[in-house]
Amino acid sequence: MSEGREQDQPEERESASRPVTAAARRERRGSARPAGRKDAEAKKAAEADSDAEEAKKGRPTRSRADSEKRAGFFARIVRYVREVVSELRKVIWPTRKQMITYTGVVLVFVAFMVAFVFGLDTAFAWGMFRVFG
């Protein structure tokens, strides 16, 4: 009994420091920002968009020769790996208990679907033999 309590305590500590659900993350992010800041940011973005549109109207389209040089093959691979690592850091990984639960649900569902398809196959085979002899 005491072993189970010891194992539950680290999870409780972890969940207190790191939100598990997306809603909890949004709430945590929202509480860190002042309420008036969102409106001010929206106004600034709208003003920047209107200024950018006005500035673009008088300019001709840039030619392809003026565009920047494409990065080398290895530089693109390094950038790709960096982006993958940064995205993996954003992932909220399931706990051991969640993983065991999800795995059990998947195995039960797969076993049920195998039995269901086997039953349908057997029924159709029996029907075909009855009809066509």
Number of strands: 0
Q: What proportion of the residues form beta strands (DSSP E)?
A: under 5%
Low-pLDDT runs of 5+ residues are: none
| Amount of helix | over 70%
Give the terminus-to-terminus CA distance: 63 Å
Mean pLDDT: 78
Please tell me how large the radius of gyration is.
29 Å
Per DSSP, the total helix count is 5
Overall geometry comes to elongated
Pairing-aware structural class of the strands and helices? mainly alpha
Strand count, sense and barrel status of the largest sheet are: none
- The SSE order reads HHHHH
Please provide a brief summary of the model.
With about 130 residues, the protein is mostly helical. The protein has a domain at about 95-133.
Secondary-structure blueprint:
Layout (H helix, E strand, L loop, with lengths): L1 H16 L4 H11 L2 H23 L15 H18 L5 H37 L1
Q: Any overview of this molecule?
A:
The protein is built from five helices and no strands. With 133 residues, it is mainly alpha-helical. It has a domain at 94-133. The termini are far apart.
Keyphrases for this structure?
single chain; 133 residues; mainly alpha; 5 helices; 79% helix; elongated
